[in-house]
Amino acid sequence: MTHLHHAALGSSRTVFLTLILIFTALIYLRGWLSLRSNSLQVRSAWRALSFLLGLFLIWVAMASPIAALDHELLIIHMLQHLLLMTLAPPLIWLGAPKDPMLHALPQRFVERRLVPWWRSRASRTIGKLLGRPRFAWLAACVALMGWHIPTLFALGMRSPGWHLFEHTSFLLTGLLFWWPVVQPAAGLFRQDLSIVLYLFFATLPCDILSGFLVFSDRVVYPIYFSSSHLLGLSPLEDQQCAAALMWTCVTVLYFVVGAIVTMRLLSPHGLPQVGLLQAKVRNGIPQRSSQVVEAL
Prior knowledge:
The chain has 296 residues and is mainly α.
């Protein structure tokens, strides 16, 4: 009955999510093409491709035929988690969506509604809180570890509403986690020494969860005992492969991003920024809050 209930609601929800993503892509493209035609603001094509690819990965994770298999294989569930938290968010931020999205919206709405809210004290307070790396790291950690507690995992699998909430929390915390790493307005990785440590410590929750699932000699999520055993995997083998997939992908991606940031910092162009950062740290000047406000 659970699978039939999910299937009954899945079709309409899939169509709704697909339409939302298509609408978002069209708004972005409208603004991007308008800015592209403006000689004063040339937009790189790779940024548009990055943003659209990020939306496509969200669709794969939440609305594609592959997403419907997450009740059959834990590997699919882990793939959804990786797409929503680890791969789609940085691609979206690298697309520098702020200017295209604002340019595509009606200017009267932007000037009368959005701009006053962004300049309000409440907006600045929220921006400072959400932009703190500690808060972003903690939120992503809570979402990752919390939803993989067997009781909450089973709740998300039994209830379509909680299942959607689970995926939404993965995506939102993923966007929040990558916000300190990528400059959303510029679509570039931040050249900041703290980002390397931020990414390193972010691998620890994943290491703990993945290691536990890989080396466990029992099936942690009993719901997969009743699956159809796709790919010829037993529930325990499925669990081990899913954990190994998450462990490998997260470690490799964070290492690559950390290496890119490090190489830019060590380049002749990046050295002055390193010295400036070290000087500000010695003087006790906070960095992140002002950057977050500027990003808004």
